[in-house]
Design a protein that fits this description.
two-stranded antiparallel ribbon
Length: 344
């Protein structure tokens, strides 16, 4: 939207400065490219800001295609621009019947956009969404005043002051967007934020074993950026785990791993890995979710507890405890210590 307005204003400013009609006509056609796509971009922005784009995206792309059709008439023949007029401020294009048709198209889309903001404003409860719709309604209402520039295309010597409403639009829209943002909380937005807030690493792989989603914790574990990690095949990540069997990749993609312990970073970190298969409505596998939890501190704490228990048992039962080989046999042997008093 900003690109189309910038192309219009910059090209037309050079058109006003042109001393030769042919040069002015060239800048006029370039500026027309920006003008032709203003209504489509505004309508596209409106639906996105109001959360209606997914429902009406076919209409949006049809509007873009119609705008492209108008563009073709600008550079083929004189159906759109029929020459140049010279005013006190400089040259300005003359619109023919196709230009008139475009103005109707322009006004209809601008009216639909304003109507969308008005309905959103009336329907929204008191809060940020209502204030955002109100602010954008005012901003685009001011921008719509730039349509008075079309009068000069029909011989009416009204100075094209469209840049002033555009400046007003920028100020009001900037204030509204900075204060109320453009996006409400949606399931998609919440899911993305939750995934990145997870302490456990999350990888989602497609059926070919390619990483499609990786959260921030996964990037930390593999010491790679998100853009580098996403798109990587599982075969490049598997060597980071130890010990890894030949069936590791297949078991992970089939969702058969449950709290399997592996070492990474040359044994400095211990992780617990689990994988689950996502299925569609027909129960066909579509992706694999891989959860990786850092359990280094937990394992270290368990070892400290085990050593503390064994030292206590050794002090309590003396050499006989050592002779029976109970120290160092793990939690399974320690769990049976309730029967040791029989050896006294």
């Amino acid at each position: 939207m900003t690109t189309t307005a910038a192309l219009w204003l910059s090209s037309y400013s050079l058109m006003y400065c042109a001393l030769d009609e042919r040069v002015a006509a060239g800048w006029s056609r370039i500026g027309q490219v920006g003008i032709l796509f203003i209504p489509a971009s505004v309508y596209h922005f409106t639906l996105a800001a109001l959360g209606n784009y997914e429902r009406l995206k076919r209409r949006v792309w049809l509007i873009w295609e119609i705008s492209l059709g108008f563009l073709l008439t600008v550079f083929t023949g004189d159906a759109f621009i029929g020459g140049m007029r010279h005013y006190d401020w400089g040259y300005y294009p003359k619109y023919n019947w196709m230009g008139t048709l475009f103005i109707c198209f322009f006004c209809a889309l601008m009216a639909l956009s304003l109507q969308g903001y008005w309905r959103a404003y009336r329907a929204a409860p008191a809060g940020a969404a209502r204030l955002r719709s109100q602010g954008l309604l005012r901003a685009f209402g001011i921008a719509y005043l730039g349509s008075f520039d079309f009068f000069a295309a029909y011989g009416i010597p009204l100075y094209p002051f469209g840049y002033i409403p555009v400046l007003g639009f920028i100020l009001f829209a900037n204030r509204t967007i900075r204060r109320y943002r453009l996006v409400d909380i949606t399931p998609e937005l919440a899911a993305k934020q939750i995934i990145n807030a997870m302490e456990d690493a999350l990888l989602i792989l497609d059926s070919d074993g390619i990483v499609r989603v990786a959260n921030h914790s996964a990037c930390d574990i593999f010491s790679r950026s998100g853009s580098d990690l996403e798109g990587s095949p599982l075969s490049t990540l598997a060597p980071a785990f130890a010990p890894v069997t030949d069936s590791f990749a297949r078991e992970l993609l089939d969702g058969r791993l449950r709290n399997s312990e592996y070492s990474i970073r040359h044994g400095a970190t211990t992780v617990s890995l689990s994988s689950f298969v996502m299925r569609d409505a027909d129960q066909a596998p579509i992706a694999t979710v891989c959860m990786i939890r850092d359990i280094t501190k937990e394992k270290s704490t368990q070892r400290e507890i085990q050593r503390h228990i064994e030292r206590g048992m050794a002090r309590r039962f003396g050499p006989q405890y050592r002779h029976n080989g109970l120290i160092g046999r793990g939690s399974r042997r320690t769990a049976a210590t309730s029967r040791l008093p029989r050896h006294r």
